[in-house]
Design goal:
Blueprint: H1 3-14, E1 17-20, E2 23-26, H2 33-36, H3 50-67, H4 72-79
Antiparallel strand pairs: 1-2
Length: 80
Amino acid sequence: MAPEKVLEEIQSMMSHVWWSGGEKKMGWNMLPWDRLCYSKGMGGLGIRDLRLFNVALLGRQVWRLINCRDTLCYKVLSAK
């Protein structure tokens, strides 16, 4: 990207920022993290909640260890 374009882009982004009462405010709404994890249809950004996703993956792994006893992972863990 040309330096002129970068400067224009920065100026455009800065035009969305203004100062009010000594407090910096953005031209767009800031959402709390848990709200960002909502689906787009519910007003969020559809970002996956990594903590819940990790718990789901761990639960799936436990289920596979219980039900699939012929896997290499089960054999290694049961040998320990």
